Amino acid sequence: MLAHSKSVRLTLLIGQYAQRFGLGDAFGPTLTDTLVRWAEFGPRVMPLPHPSPRNIAWFKRNPWFESEMLPTLRERVAAALTSDHDG
Predict the structure, then answer these.
(1) What is the CATH number of the domain that holds 41?
(2) What is the DSSP letter of 8?
(3) What angle do CA 48, 56, 14 make, to 5 degrees?
(4) What are the tens digits of pLDDT across the range 10-51?
(5) Number of domains observed in the structure of the chain
(6) Torsion 56-46-37-66 (CA) sign
(7) Predicted model pTM
(8) Sorting pLDDT into bands at 50, 70 and 90, what band is 8?
(9) Which single residue of 5, 22, 35, 70 has CA 20 to 30 Å from 48?
(10) The domain containing residue 16 runs over which residues?
């Protein structure tokens, strides 16, 4: 369905199950292996860890997520929302 929807400006793949489905063979051996390659998936797809409190340790072990990935996520979400209003 997503492949046929041209109006989707950004797809957030939250958690490993969504990433396995959405990325197929591009999903790495682990969630972290996939997430460190987040920039490879282009501007319309962003793999993200699940925001569960159970993942607090993961966020602490991976400070690059907050410093590198979150600013880009914010920019992409803002761009997707802005382009919806343009036309």
Answers:
(1) 3.40.470.10
(2) -
(3) 20
(4) 999 999 999 999 999 999 999 999 999 999 998 999 999 999
(5) 1
(6) negative
(7) 0.84
(8) confident
(9) 5
(10) 2-86
